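Now for today's protein.

===
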Amino acid sequence: MNFTIDRRLLLKGALALPAMMTVSSTLRAAETGGFTHDVASGDPGHEEVTLWTRYIGPDATGSRLRVEVASDVGFTRMVARGEATASAESDHCAHARATGLTPGHWYYYRFVAPDGGTSPIGRTRTLPRTGVERFRIGVMSCANATSGWFTAYAHAAQRQDLDLIVHLGDYIYESPLDRSDAVAGLAERRGIGPSHEAVALADYRLRYATYRDDPDLRLLHRLYPMIVMRDDHETANNSWRDGAANHDPGEGDWDVRAAAAIRAHEEWMPMRRKNYDAYQIGNLATLFRIETRNLARTKQLDIETALAGASDMKAAVAEFLTGPLQDPSRTMMGKAQEDWLTQGMRASVGSGTKWQLLAQQVIMAPTRLPRIDESWFAAGTVLDPSEQARLKIAVALADAGLPMSLDRWDGYPAARRRLLNGAADANANLVVLSGDSHNAWAYDLETGGRPVGVEFAGQGVSSFGLDKRFHGDPAVIARDFVTANPNLKWCDTSRRGYMVLDVNKEAVTNEWVFLPTDSPGASQPLETFSLSSEAGAHRLTA
């Protein structure tokens, strides 16, 4: 239903925000019943938003929850009511799509149980339809609970200047808790389960439940609407439409596992069941959310197989680069999604929308591994012969022109050209937001020698990046990457955190916020760094 916003009540709600931020973690009920995992909202439109909670009731058949939306935190000005069902069929997760709201407004919401008990109060926001001068998006990715604390979530939740959170994927990690980079005892201290790799539906559900026990993640969900997408660790590492690098026949049928993983993700996220979508932010920006993992991606190429038995490695690499790698049938998104995105960018520009933002999973820009020398390693590091041999091969492959990773868009160059050509032909102001790499990067994007846009790739919330392997001087490593990649304008390979994209009609500015992850809760940033791109420039500002 439509309603009139009382600005005085909204002001009262803003003043009440600190109280919402300090809701005790003791509100989380025991698994025996009640509201177990706080509230969340997401997938916003101009007049609607998805609301989420989890409730375990006394009746095995499920519980009908009342949903209330108000313009004030005290719920004296109710604007919408509805119902949602929480049952074992959906792991007790309840979704409600609140509609008939006013564009560009903050709201408060809660769920009410049959016995009158209430969930914590959440805050959410619809997307603005007109008159948008500025919009700020917090951008997250790669939150491995075994590697560090979610201080990025805590810091972002304390801010007062964000309009939306976008999570680019790897919201959970399916890995066993004793993976090689796990911080000793951290998963146990945080209560993450199961201990083994998530394979079955019950495993994925438990992994989400224990991740969502994190108070910083719950707080971020409570205070901001979030757009969440899947990357590979929501199913299995380096996944594609018919399998994954970390899936073997002993773990059962891939389709069964993938369906279980996707089902758990859909249950636990405040999102509708749409693989890809577009979000209109007034005439300032169109945000496109795409799917590059399980829907249509063709299998990643294997360079070891391509080079097997080759007597001349350099010649074999050259043949690989001009042959299998350039196959136009190889795809990240599939034709239907490619066409949808191309048409969507064209329509966005044609409508007078200033920016075309592309939220997606893996780095798009071409990236080669630089030459690696002793400065990449901590003083006194002694590599065993096998490590020396692997590094020698990696350097030789990079020198021969092999991209750093074939799991990124570098492994699908024809598909990348199609996407970037579509953006260039539409004269889009393209800004690509990427996750997955765990490190921070800023690229100029071009196609056929034409500048077409920029890419901001985010460091992980907690997942280790290149620092997992290389413990030398990060400034030297970053310099070597920039030197080896002319389109790479800046990078940081050693720190965690999140990004904030600040969009206005003249420019977009991306800020990387770097935070320590060795203890829980919000803390002061170690450092921030910003780069901008002016509208129409299709390049980063020098």
Remarks:
- The first strand starts at residue 34 and ends at 42.
- Residues 1-15, 23-30 have pLDDT under 50 and may be disordered.
